[in-house]
């Protein structure tokens, strides 16, 4: 690259020997002289995808069961998904994990979930390798691999691969989308969200500072808008670069809410009940050839805590309300199909549909989180365990509100089993109802079907197979390292040969499963399962054995007929568990343990006026299970000043302190039950305090105090015996000077909007006090909230 100097002092014309240590020239492929005229420029080659490389779109649904779409037997209108099935492939024996975060980690890395660090959901951090709830530094993501192969990479929707304590400013973003290979991201990092009033949305690496959502806002439409915009924008700037779109829907997770026009379409369509719907869907699956002739559908679950009653034994009132819950669910599925249609329409307009690989699937099976009777108060339903017997998990509302933005509902588990037709159990269990879900794959240009091929594939496959299959189909290579570290070897295998030829055997012949003590092991058509019911026997599984070739619905336990097979598979499960860092299986308070350094989140905090809404978890730590005080400091409140001083929560639960018509008002929304207290404000007020006293019965007693400019404080109002907001409530964080995002109290929002305070607000200070709720109550509430929040 260099020659000797042209003269003795190294000045003037000629070339200069580059001195040692001039590292800026390292790796330069051109020629350097002293002037540009004597030098040859060089540019690092741009990373480009292979010519003709396909676009890749992965559409992942949350909590959608096996039978919920038309190609898998549903009566719900899904014309766009039907189109994908008609041109592509249906995998009738595809398996996933039983809850969300593990499935997402496995999908995006090809690693088994515990090896990826997600043996559970990305909320707690018990401090063990398989439960660290953060992606490892040596775990390559599909987005990182595709970007290294010249792809544009975009993610929209639900993420839930970052611990909730890392969703706030100043925290590590190591497991956020942009740090894991995506060029852009828009959506919710949480495990769930409101469809009308998301508690927090993220654009790339920053919170979207929303005060009020538009009146016609619906989150599925919002993320679809962003997905379509990403595709259009890329094509406006680059006509050839292939893209990867990871479109992870927040639906179908509760709280269930649907747009009025979609809900109207399904009004009255579920009066026949879940037993009839299950039978109809199963008949359609048999007709499509999903299962061998003579296959039996699982009976309704009868195990305590999982059971669903016969529809004809419900009262007329229950049937009416339960049918409405399912109408909402169906409307949401329809909305997802419309979203798929908008993506397809965009690809059609660009002429790129044929050369786009599209995957559509779900993270886990349909859920039982609505309980036996469903709920009109979603976050109250989360609060289980040894709480007082008068705790109301289904706060009554006008049933015309079911599905609307004003309440959050969830269907009863009878509909969850209908979702999982023809299988047993639900999300969270390792039986088929929790882990067998629909799977569609379409790529007309690369996987056109031969004459007579229906596109149905009955081969066993698993969520870890998605990444290697997509890379195989696209003909792409995987980097050997990530950030200088040797990349972990994938557990998944490509099933591309199976897609091309139904006569090929499945390459995925065995797979372990575990969540919350529930276990499973599949090998060559045999499936070993254990339903965990006794915390004292978490490491003493009561094994059941099924021949899932002839009994895919797992209806007949044959463990007593094949004890040697039980021992063989039990030993294989144990070996796989050690290899995949499944142990330890949590059976004590460590299940909800968090990192010790998170204790500082419960220290007092001063929030200045104008501070954006606090993140949900940070806000909740200040108040849950404990005494707390809220001190509002203002300049003297003048006559006519009004508005919200502080608000925490939304329609699903919260509290708000505001000034209106010369009165100080404090309102508590306990999961849909709203109580108020108020008092005349008086003159020369410069401070207001809310003092909360927690009780062991999971209640709060509130006292409101005002302070004048002379420092005189006066108790002016009380509000006693209010249900504490615990579990996942309040869902929206703390706002100062405005009731941002979802309204805590509906009639206030309808009268005054977000009601920004018109006076001069200085700050709001939260001072957490002692925890008053017994530890066993907290542990059980948090364990169940964790499981249902995914």
UniProtKB/TrEMBL annotation:
<dbReference type="GO" id="GO:0046872">
    <property type="term" value="F:metal ion binding"/>
</dbReference>
<protein>
    <submittedName>
        <fullName>Arylsulfatase</fullName>
    </submittedName>
</protein>
<feature type="domain" description="Sulfatase N-terminal">
    <location>
        <begin position="54"/>
        <end position="475"/>
    </location>
</feature>
<feature type="region of interest" description="Disordered">
    <location>
        <begin position="1"/>
        <end position="31"/>
    </location>
</feature>
<keyword id="KW-0106">Calcium</keyword>
<dbReference type="InterPro" id="IPR000917">
    <property type="entry name" value="Sulfatase_N"/>
</dbReference>
<dbReference type="InterPro" id="IPR017850">
    <property type="entry name" value="Alkaline_phosphatase_core_sf"/>
</dbReference>
<dbReference type="Pfam" id="PF00884">
    <property type="entry name" value="Sulfatase"/>
</dbReference>
<dbReference type="GO" id="GO:0004065">
    <property type="term" value="F:arylsulfatase activity"/>
</dbReference>
<comment type="similarity">
    <text>Belongs to the sulfatase family.</text>
</comment>
<dbReference type="InterPro" id="IPR024607">
    <property type="entry name" value="Sulfatase_CS"/>
</dbReference>
<keyword id="KW-0378">Hydrolase</keyword>
<keyword id="KW-0479">Metal-binding</keyword>
<dbReference type="InterPro" id="IPR050738">
    <property type="entry name" value="Sulfatase"/>
</dbReference>
